[in-house]
Amino acid sequence: MTHTKDRNIVVDIERNRLRVIISHGEDEEIIKLSVGEARTLHKALGEKLEDYEQRQNLRID
Questions:
Q1: Per-residue DSSP letters for 9-57?
Q2: Record's superkingdom (predicted)?
Q3: Burial class (CB in 10 A: 0-12, 13-18, 19+), 6
Q4: CA distance linking residue 61 with residue 49, whole number of Å
Q5: What value does the mean pLDDT take over residues 5-10?
Q6: Strand order in the sheet with 18-24
Q7: Of 12, 32, 35, 60, whose CB is crowded by the most CB atoms within 10 A?
Q8: In terms of Cα–Cα distance, which of 28, 22, 26 is closest to 10?
Q9: pLDDT average, residue stretch 30-57
Q10: 42 Cβ neighbours under 8 A, 6+ residues apart
């Protein structure tokens, strides 16, 4: 899953963990999550994205 030229997010499945690799330019961060942690992250991201989209539709005069 690639977002920009300089930023790259890759998710791989290991034996009993999910590995998230976030690269930005020369920097790279690797996060290993259990299945439960990945589900919690998935839920939290979904909620935040929904909130973000709703805020984009608000007009403040």
A1: EEEEE-SSSEEEEEEETTEEEEEEE-HHHHHHHHHHHHHHHHHHHHHHH
A2: Archaea
A3: exposed
A4: 24
A5: 88
A6: 7-13, 18-24, 27-33
A7: 32
A8: 22
A9: 94
A10: none
